[in-house]
Amino acid sequence: MTPSPADASSFGRTPLARRSVLGVMAAAAAAPGLLALSSPASAAPDRALDLPGGGDLGPNVIVFDPSTAGIQDRLDEIFAQQETAQFGTGRYQLLFKPGTYSGLNAQLGFYTSIAGLGLSPDDTSINGDVTVDAGWFNGNATQNFWRSAENLALTPVNGTNRWAVAQAAPFRRMHIRGGLNLSPTGYGWASGGYIADSRVDGSVGPYSQQQWYTRDSSVGGWLNAVWNMVFSGVEGAPAQSFPSPPYTTLDTTPVSREKPFLYLDGSDYKVFLPEPRTDARGTTWGSGTPRGTSVPLTQFYVAQPGVTAATLNQALTQGLHLLLTPGIYHLDQPIQVNSPNTVVLGLGYATLVPDNGVTALKTADVDGVRLAGFLIDAGTANSDTLLEVGPAGASADHSANPTTVQDVFVRIGGAGAGKATTSMVINSRDTIVDHTWVWRADHGEGVGWDTNRADYGIVVNGDNVLATGLFVEHFNKYDVQWNGEGGRTIFFQNEKAYDAPNQAAIQNGDIKGYAAYKVADSVSTHEAWGLGSYCYFNVDPTIVQHNGFAVPDTPGVKFHDVLVVSLGGQGQYEHVINETGSPTSGTDTVPSTVTSYP
Fold this sequence. Notes:
There is one protein chain. Helices cover 7% and strands 39% of the residues. The chain contains four helices and 44 strands. The strands form seven sheets. Strands 23, 24, 25, 27, 29, 31, 33, 35, 37, 39, 42 and 44 form a twelve-stranded mixed β-sheet that branches. A nine-stranded parallel β-sheet has the order 1-2-4-6-9-12-14-16-17, with helices on one face. Strands 3, 5, 7, 8, 10, 11, 13 and 15 form an eight-stranded parallel β-sheet that branches. It is globular.
C-alpha cells in the first residue's frame, strides 16, 4: 500500500558469508545568513512551451506537522513495507514541519529518508527516536544500506538514539540531545558509516562498527574503535592515535560545503544551499542563520517517476534546477547539466537507471554544480560510465566555487544484472566528493564475476579533487584510480571483489591483483588519511593480493594511517602500500597497518 501525503498543499553481500566474517572480528574487538535568490546562469527566456517550476511533491513525499493525526501509524506502515526490501522499488521521503513532536519512534527501512523542514535542526524537535536496528537480519547490521536522517533535533526516550547502519546511510545536520549508539541490539556485526554537520550532546558509542567517518561536527565523547575511525573538523573527537586505538584525527576539514536541503519559509518550500567553508570545524548551525543562499521551489523542475530524460534536459535548458521526487527514473539519454550553479537534488533515494548503455548524468566544466541525494543503478546494457563530472580534458579552475557530489550512490547489480566499465569519473578540477558508496554488488540478483562486470569504481582525472568519506567496493580491477594532481582523500573504505574465480582473473601484468586505491605513476602530489582495504576471496581463498594501495614513490605523495585486513584468511595481502607493511596471515583477521608513507 502506498501512503498518501499527510500534507495536501499544492506542491506539496552473500549476506552471511560476507558479513559474518566482518562481524566476528568487529565484535572482537554562524553569522547571519544571506537569503539571496540563486539560479543557474544563462537561463533561457520564457517560451510558451516552457516547463513550470514548482509543483506537487508526489505521493511518496509524506509531510507531517505537529497536529497531524496518526503519525506513528503512518511511520510503522512505511517501515513494515521497507524493513526487508533491500532491492525493492519503494522510495519514501518523510518530512516534518517545524515544531515539537512527542512519543514517536521513526524506524527507518531501506530507501527511506527522514528530515526536518526547518532552517536549523533545532526548529524541528522530536521527543522520541529515529531508529535503525537489525532485527530483520538476525542482529547483523552490515546490510543496513540506503537510508538517511537530516535536519532534526532528537531527545531520545531512553537517553540514547540507535543508528546501526552500514554504507550509504548518511546522518547529516542532526542534533542528538543525548547519546548515539551505532551498533544493533545485542552489539552484533556492523560496518558503517558517516556523520556530518551534527551535534551529539552525549557520547557516541560505535561498539562493533568496524569503521566510521565523522566530519565538521561536535560530540560529547567517543567510546571506542575497532579498525578505522576518522574525524575531521570534529569538536570533542578523540586525539590522533592510529593504530592503537585506530583514531585518525584532523583538526579541520580543508574544504567543505554542506549538502543542499529542502525547508519551509513560512508556507513556501525552498532549497537552502550552504556556502563553502575552508579549514572547517564544528557545525554550520547553532550560532544564527546558516550562511548560504535560498532558492524557491518555483526555480526547480519537480520531477516525478516516469518523466523522460528529454523533459529533464528541457527543464535544465530553461535554467531550472531539478528536484527528483522518490521513485525510479529510466533514462534513454544522459541528464546533461550545462549551466553553472545548477542543483540536482534527490529525495527519498530517487534512483536513476540508464538504459541502452547510456551515462546517467553528465556535467559541463562549469562552476558550482551540486549533485546530491540520489542513487544510480546500472542498467543491463553496459555503460562506459554512469556519472561524469566534467568532460574529458576539463581544465577550468573551480577553486572559488567547486562542484559537489554528496550522498550520490552507485550500484552495479543486486537489484538485477547491471554493468558499467567505470562508475564515476571526475574530470572537473576542484570537485568535492563528500560521502559516496560506489558498489559492485556481492549479493542479490544479477551477481557474478562477469554478470555484473564493473572494472573501475571511481576514476579521478581532475586536479585538486577532495574526497571526504569515500566508500568503494568489489570492482573487477581498480576500485579507485587517481590520475589528477593535488588530490586528497579523508577516509576510504574498501573490500576487494569477493568473487574472483582464481588468481589469473585478477592478475595485473606481473602484479598480483589490482590495488584498491591506485595513484597514477605520473602524479607528483597526493595526500590521504585513514584508509582501509579488506579482502575476502571466498571463491578461491588461495588468491594473493600484492597490496591494497599502489602509489608513486615520491615525497609529494603522502599516505597516513593505512590498513589492510584479510577476513578470516580468505585470501591474503603481501603488503599494505607498495612494498611496505607486513603481510596478512592466518585466519585471525588482524589488520596490517602503516602509520605513514613514505
